[in-house]
């Protein structure tokens, strides 16, 4: 189940991609299938081991084209172990709502993104998320849980402040909001409640079969109650004047040395 829409977020074979806070690896796997050179990074060692196993299985099964590469590694989103301008693409999906220093994470992503590179950020949408917080404290008051709810304009402003140029947004997973409302209403750890079990079966059926009826329903629901807010942006090239000043400064430093 992808949150990033790759028809709006083009990915070319050979692109170097960072899936930051990759979790179970869903976006990293899709990028690998599309021929990218993928680095999936997360602080959770157990999930990274599982992602690495799936990468190996995909390679063995021939699911990735020639030239595609995939690496899974542990790391800290606030201190990425990569040089400046290392990646063509960065994806961070359903992660920033967990991190106190979200501006620091954005700064690190911009640092490792090449000029002209693309970034996709997804977070829980304000309205559906607010319903969950209202129904259940246990939904978010857990270790590593959600610490903030973003409004779309707030996230876009923070992306602009970090030096990015947003170019598109949309909402995703409209069918999933009611499921989480039911979970919050009946208890986030209560998977046995009949409404929760029944709706979960519907979601599994939708994910596995992708019937036209639910696909159309989700398209209609996404603008209204889509669970996720998705924003796409690019990292602008430095203006010519700034590039000239940087080049002159570097030349001056070399002369002094």
From TrEMBL:
Q: What's an example GO BP annotation here?
A: methylation
The protein's UniProt keywords, in alphabetical order, are: Methyltransferase, Transferase
The source's domain of life comes to Bacteria
- TM segments? none
- Which molecular function term from Gene Ontology is one that the record holds? methyltransferase activity
InterPro entries assigned: Methyltransf_11, SAM-dependent_MTases_sf
Q: Where is the Methyltransferase type domain?
A: 18-120
Short name of one Pfam family for this protein?
Methyltransf_11
UniProt region (Disordered), positions on chain:
236-257
Feature: compositional bias, Low complexity? 246-257
Q: Does the keyword Methyltransferase apply?
A: yes
Protein name in UniProt: Class I SAM-dependent methyltransferase
């Amino acid at each position: 189940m992808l949150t990033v829409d790759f028809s709006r977020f083009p990915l070319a074979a050979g692109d170097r991609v960072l899936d930051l806070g990759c979790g179970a690896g869903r976006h990293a796997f899709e990028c690998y299938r599309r021929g990218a050179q993928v680095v999936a990074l997360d602080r959770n060692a157990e999930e990274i081991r599982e992602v690495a196993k799936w990468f190996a299985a995909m390679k063995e099964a021939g699911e990735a084209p020639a030239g595609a590469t995939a690496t899974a590694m542990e790391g800290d989103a606030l201190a990425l172990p990569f040089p400046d301008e290392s990646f063509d693409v960065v994806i961070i999906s359903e992660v920033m709502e967990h991190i106190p220093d979200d501006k620091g994470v954005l700064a690190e992503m911009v640092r490792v993104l090449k000029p002209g590179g693309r970034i996709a950020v997804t977070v829980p949408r304000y309205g559906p998320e607010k319903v969950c917080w209202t129904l259940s404290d246990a939904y978010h008051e857990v270790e590593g849980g959600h610490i903030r709810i973003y409004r779309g304009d707030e996230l876009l402003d923070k992306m602009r402040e970090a030096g990015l140029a947003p170019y598109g947004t949309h909402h995703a997973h409209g069918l999933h909001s009611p499921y989480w409302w039911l979970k919050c209403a009946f208890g986030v750890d209560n998977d046995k409640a009949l409404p929760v079990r029944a709706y979960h079966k519907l979601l599994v059926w939708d994910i596995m079969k992708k019937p036209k009826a639910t696909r159309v329903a989700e398209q209609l629901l996404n603008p209204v109650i889509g669970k996720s807010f998705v924003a796409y942006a690019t990292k602008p090239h430095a203006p010519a004047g700034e590039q000239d000043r940087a080049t002159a400064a570097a030349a001056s430093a070399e002369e002094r040395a």
